């Protein structure tokens, strides 16, 4: 059956739960700030309720400090602004110039971007030097991200993952916001022989490549081509630029759907559709034109969203992978609310938090285009998922637990996620990206409830 969409739910009805979440959130941010030692590296996920690190790539520090900025945004408590500002200055510079990752849209937009947005919204003093500092960081971040470029045989290309130039990750569609901000701030990537490279062009070409190879449409691409399914990784032959095959790093298999990757597609394409509204037709014309570009992104956004809604539990929380090997032992699990304490396969609440934001945005976008009924379906689905996440067993009410959103999964194949004593699968723990995206989702819905400015990643542009 899949998700049971609550068509009567409104942001206003969710305000008490949203405010309770931000109350819990503040205490957890302060706990991490008090106990975390920078020599330990970056906090990634919790083990027995305490944040721990896991070396792979440095992609979660922006979520740590960005969470403090979001907390200030929601509550006006200046202690959180101080944490976000101070730690961004002291800790985030290496992330701006990091040439080895595809995560600039995560780390730097969550910190420098959110701080710049608060200046633009007159929420903090418009200090010219501070504003220029954030803008410069975002310009450099977008250019560095765009420099990780792999051209492909059919034309265009993609920003490759930390795995290397052969590797296109579905996650990276959300890092394209780094390129979008840098472009709108008037920046370009300067290449060999002083050749300027358009960041907008690279954003759109990456979005096209991801739509072509990372999202399926039921058009017979392979035997497992089911509309809306996504591949975590797409592999290319670097000798000739041709696509070779799907792969999965964190999912169960190349031919099943890792649901956090699916969620990145939903959220990434939805917010890029919003972003295109502030890009002129003149800029888009040489890149294929607005109609073609929007159609490509909308096709990917709606396909992935429809697959999510059809393959999630009744409360909108998905299992960690739609093809996980022991799902059959759960019976008709899609007909019921999710059970994070089952004996066979974990859920992934972080995927739900990311997807919910994308669903709300996609619904708002379609409604703005006159597609009221279709838009309402996605919008109400997003609110339904949000409501589930704000209640137990997903919201963490234990003040001794440093995580905010429980039952997040990082890397099931590698066995990195903690399995509590007495349980058979990972459960009861949190992740830095899950906590951040729940806060971002909650801020979006809270602003909708209070008729405040609509939250976008490009709100920092004024």
Q: What topology emerges from the helices and strands here?
A:
Blueprint (H helix, E strand, L loop, with lengths): L14 H21 L9 E3 L2 E3 L8 H15 L2 H14 L1 H4 L7 H4 L1 H12 L7 H19 L2 E3 L5 E3 L7 E3 L6 H9 L4 E2 L5 E2 L1 H15 L19 E4 L6 E5 L11 H18 L4 H4 L5 H21 L38 H20 L3 H18 L42 H18 L13
Antiparallel strand pairs: 1-2, 3-4, 5-8, 6-7, 8-9
Helix pairs in contact: 1-2, 1-15, 2-3, 2-6, 2-15, 6-7, 7-8, 8-9, 9-12, 10-12, 10-13, 12-13, 13-14, 13-15
Number of domains: 1
Q: Label the overall shape.
A: globular
Mean pLDDT: 97
Largest sheet: 3 strands, antiparallel
Rg estimate, integer Å: 20 Å
Order of helices and strands: HEEHHHHHHEEEHEEHEEHHHHHH
Task: Work out the strand percent.
Answer: 5-15%
Give start-end ranges of low-pLDDT stretches: none
What CATH architecture would you give? Alpha/alpha barrel
Total number of beta strands: 9
Order of strands in the sheet with the most strands? 5-8-9
Indicate the percent of residues in helices.
Answer: 40-55%
Remind me, CATH topology?
Glycosyltransferase
Report on the architecture of this protein.
By secondary structure, the protein is mostly helical. It has one domain (12-461): Glycosyltransferase (Alpha/alpha barrel). The protein has helices at residues 15-35, 61-75, 78-91, 93-96, 104-107, 109-120, 128-146, 176-184, 199-213, 259-276, 281-284, 290-310, 349-368, 372-389, 432-449, and strands spanning 45-47, 50-52, 149-151, 157-159, 167-169, 189-190, 196-197, 233-236, 243-247. A hairpin with a 6-residue loop joins strand 8 (233-236) and strand 9. Helix 2 packs antiparallel against helix 3 (78-91), helix 2 (61-75) runs parallel beside helix 6 (109-120) and helix 10 packs parallel to helix 13 (349-368). The chain is globular. The N and C termini lie far apart (43 Å). The model has no long low-confidence stretch (mean pLDDT 97).
């Amino acid at each position: 059956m899949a998700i049971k969409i609550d068509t009567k739910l409104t942001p206003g009805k969710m305000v008490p739960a949203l405010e309770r979440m931000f109350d819990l959130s503040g205490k957890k941010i302060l706990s991490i700030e008090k106990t975390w030692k920078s020599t330990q590296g970056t906090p990634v996920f919790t083990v027995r309720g305490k944040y721990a690190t896991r070396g792979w790539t440095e992609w979660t520090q922006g979520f740590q400090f960005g969470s403090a900025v979001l907390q200030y945004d929601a509550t006006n408590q200046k202690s959180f602004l101080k944490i976000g500002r101070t730690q961004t200055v002291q800790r985030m510079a290496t992330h701006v110039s990091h040439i080895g990752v595809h995560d600039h849209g995560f780390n730097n937009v969550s910190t420098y971007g959110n701080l710049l947005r608060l200046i633009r919204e007159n929420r903090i003093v418009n200090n010219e030097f501070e504003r220029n500092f954030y803008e410069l960081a975002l310009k450099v971040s977008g250019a560095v991200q765009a420099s990780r470029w792999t051209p492909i045989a059919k034309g265009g290309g993609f920003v490759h993952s930390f795995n290397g130039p052969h590797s296109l990750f579905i996650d990276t569609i959300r890092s394209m916001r780094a390129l979008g901000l840098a472009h709108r701030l008037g920046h370009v990537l300067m290449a060999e022989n002083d050749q300027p490279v358009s960041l907008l062009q690279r954003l759109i070409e990456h979005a096209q490549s991801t739509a072509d190879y990372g999202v399926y449409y039921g058009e017979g691409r392979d035997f497992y081509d089911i509309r809306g399914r996504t591949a975590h990784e797409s592999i290319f032959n670097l000798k000739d630029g041709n696509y070779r095959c799907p792969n999965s790093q964190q999912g169960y298999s190349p031919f099943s759907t890792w649901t956090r990757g699916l969620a990145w597609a939903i959220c990434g394409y939805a917010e890029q559709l919003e972003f295109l509204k502030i890009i002129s037709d003149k800029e888009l014309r040489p890149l294929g034109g607005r109609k073609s570009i929007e159609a490509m992104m909308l096709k990917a956004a709606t396909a992935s969203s429809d697959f999510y809604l059809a393959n999630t539990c009744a409360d909108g929380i998905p299992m960690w992978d739609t093809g996980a090997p022991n799902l059959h032992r759960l019976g008709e699990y899609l007909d019921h609310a999710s059970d994070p304490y089952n004996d066979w396969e974990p859920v992934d609440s972080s995927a739900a938090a990311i997807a919910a934001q994308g669903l709300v945005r996609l619904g708002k976008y379609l409604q703005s285009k006159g597609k009221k009924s279709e838009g309402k379906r996605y919008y109400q689905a997003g609110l339904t998922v949000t409501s589930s996440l704000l209640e137990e067993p997903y919201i963490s009410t234990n003040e001794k637990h440093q995580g905010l959103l429980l039952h997040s999964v990082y890397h099931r194949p590698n066995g990195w996620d903690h399995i509590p004593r007495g349980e058979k699968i990972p459960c009861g723990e949190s992740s830095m990206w899950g906590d951040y995206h729940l806060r971002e989702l909650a801020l979006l819905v809270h602003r909708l409830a209070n008729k405040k400015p609509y939250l976008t990643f490009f709100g920092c542009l004024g």
